[in-house]
Amino acid sequence: MTPARILAVAAAAAGALALATTSSAGRHGGGTLVGTVGPGFTITLKQNGQLVNTIPAGTYTFVIHDMASIHAFSLDGPNGFAKDFTTVPFTGTKSVTVALKPGAYKYYCPPHESFMFKHFTVK
Ligand SMILES: [Cu+2]
Fold first, then answer.
1. pTM for the full model?
2. Structural domains counted in the chain
3. How far is the CA of 36 from the centre of ligand 1 (A)?
4. In a domain, 2, yes or no
5. Spacing, Cα 123 to ligand 1 middle (Å)
6. Hey, which residues does 35 pair with through a beta bridge?
7. Separation of 19 CA from ligand 1 center, angstroms?
8. How far apart are CA 123 and CA 27, in angstroms?
9. What is the 75 CA–ligand 1 centroid distance (Å)?
10. Which domain holds residue 116?
């Protein structure tokens, strides 16, 4: 190979790598979502430390920290999707893998649903 040819091959390989990295982060969902309910009257769902607002469709592992016996963590979604990750009076951590399809989702604490809830969107 000439030096120019070697350079071209290296550049193509670097480009392919960049493309692969971009597509896995940008288009495909999946990964870990961390939910926390309690110990006060709060409920959150975070990915990499940030509240989940809009995420790509995919298979996610929900790691749910239920910090109080009076609270629980449930998730409603499109087309009748409903998941109770924890129930009263459970406390502790549960991991559940869920396939999220596009639509509007709401996570909430069932006994305090009127004020302990948040929404996110799956695209
Ligand atoms: Cu509650």
1. 0.78
2. 1
3. 11
4. no
5. 28
6. 45, 64
7. 44
8. 10
9. 13
10. 29-122
